[in-house]
Amino acid sequence: MATAVAEPTAETIPTTTTTAVPAPEASKIFVEPSPQRPIGGRVRWYRVPIPQKELAKLNQRSNFWGFLQTAGYLGLLAVTGTVTYMVAMRIWPLRLPMWWNLLATIPLLWFHGMCWHFLINGFHELIHDSVFKTRGLNKFFLWIYSFLGWYNHIQFWASHTEHHKFTLHQPDDLEVTLPQKFNTKDLLKWELVNYNWAKWAIPSHWRYARGKLPGKWDKQLFENDPVLYRKLKNWSRFVLIGHAIIFAVAMYMHWWALPLVLTVPMMFGGSIHALTNSSQHIGLRDNVPDFRLCCRTIYLNPFLQFIYWHMNYHIEHHMYAAVPCYNLPKLHRAIKHELPYTPTGLRETWTIINGILEKQNQDPNYQFNADLPTAPRFKSDAITKNNGNGNGNGQADAGAEIPKAETDDIVLGVMAKAGAPVHDIGSSVAQEQASTPSTASTAS
Questions:
Q1: Distance between CA 41 and CA 37 in Å, rounded?
Q2: At the N or C end, where does the chain have fewer CB atoms within 10 A?
Q3: Radius of gyration of the chain (CA)
Q4: pLDDT tens for residues 12-45?
C-alpha cells in the first residue's frame, strides 16, 4: 500500500490502493488498512491495554526528572561548545600550537554538532508539554530550544498534533509520508559540512517572517487560523533577528568561533542523528490503525538514548503520547509482550531497514509488515485475520476487551491542553475528548 494517495475529490480517504500489503513469511497476523473515513475523521487506534492505575503513574510528570533531562542535555551542549570554542580561539588553558589547535577543533566541532542535532528531540518533547510538572518550565525551555535549534514551535505544534492523531494517514498527516528514501550520499554530506541545513533553515524562517506559506501542508495548517498565523510570523522574526545579533556581535568582537558553536553547529556531524531519527517510520506501513506497524522501537546505548530523549521507544511514544520521555523505558517493559521484535543498536536497525528499502526499490508497492505477537483487539471493526497459511477467516475478535484508553485525548495527551498555541484540530475531536472517559485524564 505504498502507492501515493491521489488528491481526494470527495471528503473521503481511500481504504487502500492495492489489494494487499506484502507480509513477511514468518508473520501470522495481518492487520487490514484503516476503514474508509471522512477526511479529518477519527482513526480508531489499537493500544496495548494497561491498568488504569499503572498508566496514571506512567503519565506523572516530574520537575526533578525534567530538569535532569533538559538541563543535563543543555549542560552537555555547554561543555562541548565551550571546549570547542576555547580550542578554536586558543584560549588558555587549551592554547596549543596553531596547527594542533586547528586539528583538535575539527573533531570537537563534529562532536558538538552531533550532540546539537538532538535539540530537535528535546524541542519535540517540550512541544508535548510532558517534560515538567510545572507548565511554565516547559514553555520557558521550549523557547530556549526553539531559538537554539532554529525551530518554529508554532509550526511544529500545529503539524505534530495532526501527526499524532493521524500517523501516516494521508492527507491528514503530511508531516511524515511514505515511502521514505534514504541516500548514503546525503549521509556523508550530513557527516562533514551540511550546507543544505543553511539553505533550509534561514530561507524557511525568512518566508515565515514575511508571511509566506510555501507548501500545501503549511497552508492547510495556517490559512484559516489568523491568530496562529501571526504567531508563526513573529517567532521566525525573533529567531532571525536574534541570530543576526549574535553573528554581528561575534564579528565585531572578533569572536569568529562563536557562531560556529552557537548559531550554525547543525552544519556539522549530522549523520548519527539522521540514522536515529530516520528509523522511526521508514519502510513501515501507512494507513493502518496499529502503531506497532507504522512506528519502530529500537534499543540504543545509554548515552545515545539520553541525547535522543528516549525517542528510540517510538511505538510507545505514539501509543501513549502523554507519557513523559523519561518514563518510556518503563512503558516499554509494561507492553513489550505485545510488541514486534526490537533491534539492538543502529547497525542491526539499519541492516533491517536497508533490506526493506532494497525490496522497495524492486517493488514500489512493498511495505514491511512487522511480525506481531498478538492481534489487535478492536471493539467492533473486523480488521484482523490470520494470513499465515492463507486460511484466515477475516473475522475480528469482536468480543475482546477494548482498552479504555482508546480515545484521542491520550494521543494528544497534554499537548493540546498545555498553554501551547490553540489550533483548530477539529471540533469532533474536542467533543470526543470532553465526552469520552480515558485512563489518560490524570496526565492533563
A1: 6
A2: C
A3: 23
A4: 323 333 334 444 444 568 888 999 899 899 999 9
